[in-house]
Amino acid sequence: YFICCLAVSDLLVSVSNVLETTVMLLLEAGAMATRAAVVQQLDDIIDVLICGAMVSSLCFLGAIAVDRYISIFYALRYHNIVTLPRAWRAISTIWVASVLSSTLFIAYYNHTAVLLCLVSFFVAMLVLMAVLYVHMLARACQHARGIARLHKRQRPAHQSFGLKGAATLTTLLGVFFLCWGPFFLHLSLMVLCPQHPICGCVFKN
């Protein structure tokens, strides 16, 4: 369910961006003539969709990390902790919170505090996932050492397992950062140096 919700969130981000770009191109080409107030309302709706989908996507990535963490460290109690009603409550809470927060963010987007909140949220989710996955990798390596001792395997087998785990972890967090990093770098620069020529160059690109 968490993975499906993550897929829906990412799909909404893509569709919203395509919709926004299409509307902008139609307006610039003069193919869609409408009043400025209607354009502003449409822009706000699309921005709320993009922002809400982005927040929910980050939340579901965090929820998946927490779910995996519980399944490893509390394996025997997992089905008592992560029940279907709790999962549905978590999913509902994430969607409602994403819509409400995105509405507030777009309504007050000119305030520096809003941009700082978004950047802080991204950093917090990145740190949360890094801590949880590193802890899970450490547990997996510890488990591999225990199995190696039982079977009297040589050390290189454990090193190979550790390298594979580290590579998987690096890929996971690296892709996450590459996907969302540019957007939040853009927000950070809007707060730190909105008038600087170099930052202006980044904004254009």
Notes on the structure:
The chain is mainly α and 205 residues long. The protein folds into two domains: 1-107, Rhopdopsin 7-helix transmembrane proteins (Up-down Bundle); 109-204. It is 88% helix and 0% strand. It is built from seven helices and no strands. It has helices at residues 2-29, 36-73, 78-81, 84-107, 112-151, 155-192, 197-204. Helix 1 (2-29) runs antiparallel to helix 2, helix 2 runs antiparallel to helix 4 (84-107) and helix 2 (36-73) packs parallel to helix 5. The model has no long low-confidence stretch (mean pLDDT 82). The chain crosses the membrane at residues 45-66, 87-107, 113-140, 161-185. Residues 1-205 form the G-protein coupled receptors family 1 profile domain. It comes from Ailuropoda melanoleuca (Giant panda).
